[in-house]
Amino acid sequence: MENILDQNLEELQNWMEKNSEKKFRAKQVFDWVYDGIYDFDSMGNLPQGLKSKLASYFYIDIPEIVEAYKSEIDGTVKLLNRFRDGNIIESVIMKYKYGNTICISSQVGCRMGCKFCASTLNGIVRNLSAGEIISEIIAGGAYISERISNVVIMGSGEPLDNYNNIIKFLELVNLEHGLNIGQRHITLSTCGLVPKIYDLANKKLQITLAISLHSSNDEERRKIMPIANKYSIVDIMEACKYYIDMTGRRITFEYALIHGENDAKEDAYELVGILRGMLCHVNLIPMNEVKESKLKKSTNQNVKTFRDILDSSGIEVTIRRELGADINAACGQLRKSYLESHD
Ligand code: SAH
Question: What structural domains does the chain harbor?
Fold first, then answer.
């Protein structure tokens, strides 16, 4: 049995033809699924024979929302999604003036080992399939009964460590008969798997690439991000320049400010030296403290000073607004505490 959400239109059309059905049925099936009908029997305009064939070949895996939290402060919604094999992942929906943005996970757990991140503490369980990643958006949209117009792949997992499924996801999310979310409304965040950044650049997509930099020199970066042992900042910057050349898109650099680790004035000046002249934007994130880690967030003063140094050097910079502060909305913390309390 296969998850029908893992099929693209062409694949489902081919399946129809192989099974002596009309090609146009594929679109009808997608219309139903994306309209919130999750069993083949209820798809009114399909012949009975096709419904049974579909049901014997495919299942529709929309995760069950096992827990949901809504922030009293800003309406941010955090969802714990359970797939049919029992694995749990989290997603977050943020309400902005320009529409709803969902932050989705790309893997169950993560194997990158960043020292400040709760998603990676227990390692990786498995990749999510393209259809499962899509279904986080379907389930989230159904939960809030509103359209989701923007997607950030910034939940648990390293998307470029699940490259093929992410590429397929990027194709599926665009489908007119599906979620119809354009590439410019999608951001993919990576800790910097350099060869995969080149592969992605060669696809010439219009998505925004966000790089989790978090340090302005390799020595410091290696202390908090094991991936820095494999790829240097110079390697990352070259890959980013290639990405810009191929796509014309501005790169976002994420920089979580950690007290005493990466938040000194010298770090800010060093970062300016790396980024000057590049088509980019820096997003400063006051680190979210994770109980398993000794790392602490920077003081407000350090955050402001850091921002001002970048700003006065002509680097575009914003400080990420903290959303969902009352619901543990950050970075794998919820899945972890759920797993601990249900052991
Ligand atoms: N693996 C990808 C995407 C998931 S993490 C990546 O590394 O980019 C999404 C972002 O949240 C990354 O920038 C990550 O470094 C950051 N992050 C993780 N834990 C954090 C924490 N405790 N405080 C602030 N940012 C954190």
Answer: 2-59 (1.10.150.530), 64-341 (3.20.20.70)
DSSP string, 321-341: PP--GGGT-STTHHHHHHHHH
**Ligand 1 center to residue 105 CA distance, Å?**
11
- Amino acid letter, residue 272: V
Q: Which of 21, 90, 132, 136 is catalytic?
A: 90
Residues 57-101: tens digit of each pLDDT: 999 999 999 999 999 988 899 999 999 999 999 999 999 888 999
Q: 334 in ligand 1 pocket by Cβ < 6 Å? A: no
pLDDT value of position 325:
74
Provide the pLDDT for residue 320: 87
Cα–Cα distance between 22 and 64 in angstroms, integer? 32
Question: Ligand 1: does its nearest atom lie under 6 Å from the Cβ of 333?
Answer: no
Average confidence (pLDDT) over 223-235: 98
Q: Is 110 noted as a catalytic residue in this protein?
A: no
Cα separation, 42 vs 49, whole angstroms:
13
- Cβ-in-10-Å burial (0-12, 13-18, 19+) of 27 comes to middle
Mean local confidence (pLDDT), 123-136: 97
**Spatial separation of the C-alpha atoms in residues 284 and 317, rounded to whole Å:** 7
pLDDT digits (tens, 9 = 90+) for 304-330: 999 999 999 999 999 987 777 777 755
Measured CA to CA, the distance from residue 80 to residue 87 in angstroms comes to 10
Which of the 8 DSSP states describes residue 297?
A: B
**Strands 58-59 and 64-70, bridge-based pairing:** unpaired
Beta strands in the chain (DSSP E): 2-3, 58-59, 64-70, 77-82, 88-96, 99-103, 107-109, 124-127, 148-153, 186-190, 208-212, 251-257, 280-286, 317-319
Q: Is the pLDDT of residue 331 over 60?
A: no
Tokens 């990420």 sit on residue: 320
